[in-house]
Design a protein that fits this description.
The protein has an eight-stranded mixed barrel. The chain starts with 5 loop residues before the first strand and ends in a 15-residue tail after the last strand. The model has no long low-confidence stretch (mean pLDDT 92). 20% of the residues lie in helices and 33% in strands. Zinc ion (ZN) binds next to loops.
């Protein structure tokens, strides 16, 4: 599976989110494993020093106590605290950035339940995240996905970010790497 790094930015081009190729692939694998129920997990990574860029390094699977349905997902918390402590102590240091969800139908926007979850996360001191991200993955065909990214400043009023081209991605030249 070829996935380039995914990049999103706001309308003012003042904030961007970069999702590492491995994190995107992991989300797609988890979505593909069972297309008839929602799933999700947390996003971890770091911010640039001026907070203008969030870099998502990892997208986890659902904690063991998560609950799923065709059009709903309640992310559990089993093991999450330990995981976040371990990531904080690793080099490079990473931390909680937000959530990701698989929506089984092509409805790539936050549900009422999703908005409630993001509000709770932003207010929960354990996440230390006043501006959580929500990435939503939807199927559009075999092996094809729509990925949308929202930022929730203060946990409310989701702002959709738009996907932009990766300026550092070089299209392979025809014949290149074919040796
Ligand atoms: Zn959702």
């Amino acid at each position: 599976m070829i996935v380039r790094r995914l990049i999103f930015e706001d309308a003012e081009q003042s904030f961007r989110v970069m999702i590492a190729d491995e994190a995107a692939k992991h989300m797609f694998r988890l979505c593909n494993a069972n297309r008839s129920q929602e799933t999700g997990g947390i996003l971890t990574g770091s911010y640039s020093s001026d907070y203008s860029t969030a870099e998502v390094v990892e997208a986890t699977g659902p904690p063991a106590d998560s609950e799923f349905g065709r059009d709903w997902f309640h992310r559990g918390t089993d093991g999450l605290e330990e995981l976040l402590i371990a990531k904080w102590n690793e080099a490079p240091r990473t931390h909680y950035l937000g959530e990701w969800h698989f929506h089984t139908a092509n409805v790539p926007w936050p549900s009422a339940q999703d908005k409630k979850q993001m509000r709770e996360v932003a207010r929960d001191a354990r996440y230390k995240c006043a501006q959580p991200l929500l990435v939503i993955v939807c199927p559009v065909g075999a092996g094809q996905w729509v990925v949308k990214c929202y930022v929730f400043p203060g946990g409310t009023a989701p702002q959709p970010l738009r996907m932009v081209e990766d300026p550092d991605f070089d299209e392979p030249e025809p014949g290149e790497g074919a040796a």
